[in-house]
Amino acid sequence: MNSRVFYLYVLLLFVFLIPVNGFATIRHACFIVNPASNNGKGWRVWDRIEEAVSQHYTAVGSEDQAAAALQATYNVFFTEHAGHATELAMEAYLDWQQGQHDQEDQLLIVAVGGDGTVHEVVQGLERQPQVVIGVIPAGKGNDIARTLRLRNPRHALRTLVYGASMPFGAYKIEGCETGSCEKKTVLAVSEFDLGLTTQMTKKKNDHDSGERPSRLLRYSPRSMASAMLAMSSAMRWNTPIVRCTTDNGRFNIPLNFLAASTGPTFGGGIALFNYMLPICTRGKLLYSLQRTHPIWTLIQMTMERLLNWSGLTRTNMQKLRNWSGQRELVFTQLGIQHQDETPLSIQVDGDIALQTPAQITWLSSAFRFMRPPEYGELGYTLMDLDEARDDPDSF
Question: 300: part of which helix (H) or strand (E)?
Answer without folding.
Answer: helix 294-307
